[in-house]
Amino acid sequence: MSLLSGWRRGAHAADGFEFPTYRDGEGPGVIVMHESPGLTPEVVRFGGELVDEGFTVVMPHFFGSAHEAPRRAEAARVIPRLCVGREFTMVATGRTTPVAGWLRSLSRHLHAELGGVGVGAVGMCFTGGFALAMMVDPSVAAPVVAQPAVPVPLGVRRAADVGLDAGDLVAVQDRVRAGCPVLGVRYRDDWATGTRFETLTAALGDGFRRVELDGSGHATLTAERHPDAVEAVVGFLRERLMPAA
């Protein structure tokens, strides 16, 4: 039986893109963006944890397989597509992901339907910085940046880049000053995150909440799931999206 069998499959089209989505749960909305190489069982299970915590979870499916364990050569097939696809960028610096407009539209749609103070956005690894691009839109009230790994940290400049153009970075800073913090989660010695946490601390000050775990693991919420990381994310989403609780 598919891990997604209890999830409602849909699709969202906006800004020249259309992607499938999977939805489950009740309560404030949270958009969970999967990592490479796809919408793996670990990502689906994390989404299910958030459903159990009282959230409506929407998981877009951007690339790779859905719910199945990745095949041995999955990453080898997915990475080249990500390099040449117009939806994403892997190596360019100072550039917001092209799919940002689609994600902002999805967050507005979910917020308009569910109401409340806003929605959460959880990005991981390849999508780690997408939550920053999304919070330019005021519908996003709880952005979570988990082990951001794009652009690929080859060289000092790419290692420090947070995947935003200059205008979007200013918009993120404005939102943080207005009271919307950003949660960041990573393993302290994870090379793939480069020096992005330092960049975000310099840009956002105390508005960037860092959770750094001992070790050199990578996938804090999924394959190398750390209970402290999950607890921090759930607590942040509850604080931001369920203020009455």
From TrEMBL:
Domain of life the protein comes from: Bacteria
Any one Gene Ontology molecular-function term assigned to this protein's record: hydrolase activity
Keywords: Hydrolase
Statement: the UniProt record of this protein carries the keyword Chloroplast: no
InterPro entries associated with the record: AB_hydrolase_fold, Dienelactn_hydro
Domain Dienelactone hydrolase: 26-148
Record protein name field: Dienelactone hydrolase
Lineage of origin: Bacteria, Bacillati, Actinomycetota, Actinomycetes, Micrococcales
